[in-house]
Each structure stands twice: as C-alpha cells, then as structure tokens.
C-alpha cells in the first residue's frame, strides 16, 4: 500500500512536470504568431494541461477501468471549475471578454448535453459517441483557428525582433519543440503510474474506482491547470487563466472522454446510488453543469467575474467531495 502511494505521488510529479514543459513549449510557439491571450489559453495551453487527463483516461479505458476514465474526465471539469477557477476568483476576480468566450462555452454545453444524454438514456458510452465527441473537438479547433485569423493583429512596432536576434529565435523554437516531446513523454509515464496505483489503492481501501477517479485522480491530473492558473494570476494574466479553464473543461468532454470511449467504450459506473438511482446521474453530472453555469453565465452577461462566484464554487466543491466519500462508505 505504501509503495503504491509513493508511485502514485511520483506519477503525479511526472504529470505536473511534463505538463509544465509541454505548456512552456506550446505557449512560446503560439506567442510567436501573436495570438490573442484568451485564445491561446482556450486552445494551446488547454490541450497541454489536459494531456494528463487524456493519457490517464485512455490508459484506464484500454485496461478495462471505465470507472477511472469516467470519473477522471468528469471530476476534472468539477475540479477545474469549482476549485481552481474558484481559487483564482476568490483571490483576484477580473474581467471577461464575451466575444472570445462564446465559442468555447457554447461548445462545452452542447457537448455536455450530448454526454449527459448518453449517460441518462443509454446508460453508457458506445463507440459512436466517442467518435461524435472527437469530431466535435476537431470542429471546435477549426472554428477556433478561423477565429484567431480574424482577431486583430498586434500593433505595428510592438515587440519587433531585431534582425541580429533571428539566430537565437531559431534556437528557441527548436528548444520549444524538444520541450513539447519531452513533456509528452513524462506525461505518458506519469499517467501509467497514476492509473495503475489508483486502481490498487481503490481496491485496498474498498472504495469504487469511480470515486478515486472523480476525486483524487481528478485533482492530481488537474494540477497543471492549477499551476497555470496561479502563475497566470501572479503575472496579471487573468484572461489566460479563464481561457485555460474553459478550454480544459471542453477538452475533458470532447478529447479526454472522446479518446477514452473510442479506445474502449464503457458503461456508466453503477457502484453508488442515491435513492435507488445511479449517483452519477443525481450528483456528478448535475454538479458539472451547475458549476460551469455559475462560472460562465455571469461572465457572459456582465463581462466580469466576482469573488462571490469563487466562494460559492469552493463551497460546492467541498460539499461534492464530501458526498463522494460519504456515499462510498
């Protein structure tokens, strides 16, 4: 048991370090093209910080652990919104750009409705549902790239590189590519360690794997988002943090879940019930919808975020986490 805990922790460290390296390389490459900050957060950085979830869920699904794959994706959405974004809002609420939020928010709720329909009406996620989710990811990326092309260019004279600096820029670009590859490798290794040892820990303490997935594994694989949010907040880039959270939540549905389902379709975990109804249908999915509504609707209407939102989300996350372990007992 102790060895499994140590390996689980080491896997999380690899995930964090790998995600950090990937994000550094990806964001530096994106900045070379003068992309808007929130759009960088909603695409490049979000993909990088979501890679741990992709790897953990895909490996879990391939190994027959649908509970971890399901719990990790859904739990990461709740963790990203009600813990990470909530901490950011509680410390320093900021403004929100409605024009760049509309696309990822609409795609998130559209994908979430489809995901929920599969859970409520099919009781699981067949192969075709995974293909639909991955297709939604592809469409979103195409539309986002088109949106980036329509975005205003950087002002003339701003951040103009000197001719003699071109050689160092070339070297930096190569380094960024190396960082991407090395980061992805660390993420893959860390994901294997987290998945294998999470299963063992769940079995040892008698808690369903879906609970481990939706709490401990979800928090662990969401640490890159937490690091990104804190770093962005410290540097005054609130838009990057918000874009990263929204983008990561969308990718947890269309990319993380889509990849896991396509690799190995799985049924809705049924280890816990509330009033004779599957707990996921009563708690997990409604909470995921609720926290995203609390985060995004006021931002879209008022184009700013408030500390009250952050505190409310933190209270919801505390209650949600407690309910998972109480139901599992």
Which radius of gyration do the C-alpha atoms yield?
Answer: 19 Å
CATH fold-level label: A middle domain of Talin 1
How many structurally independent domains? 1
Unreliable segments (pLDDT under 50, ≥5 consecutive)? 153-171
The fraction of residues assigned to DSSP E strands is: under 5%
What is the percent of helical residues? Answer: over 70%
The largest sheet is: 2 strands, antiparallel
Tally of strands: 4
Treating each run of at least 4 consecutive H or I residues as one helix, how many helices? Answer: 11
Find the CATH superfamily.
NCX, central ion-binding region
Structure at a glance:
By secondary structure, the protein is an all-alpha fold.
Care to describe what's here?
- With 329 residues, this protein is mostly helical.
- The chain has one domain (2-147, 169-328): Up-down Bundle (A middle domain of Talin 1), CATH 1.20.1420.30.
- 81% of the residues lie in helices and 2% in strands.
- The chain has 11 helices and 4 strands; from the N terminus they run H-H-H-H-E-H-H-H-H-H-E-E-E-H-H.
- The strands form 2 sheets. The chain has a two-stranded antiparallel ribbon with strand order 1-2. Strands 3-4 form a two-stranded antiparallel sheet.
- Helix 3 packs parallel to helix 10.
- Residues 153-171 have low confidence and may be disordered.
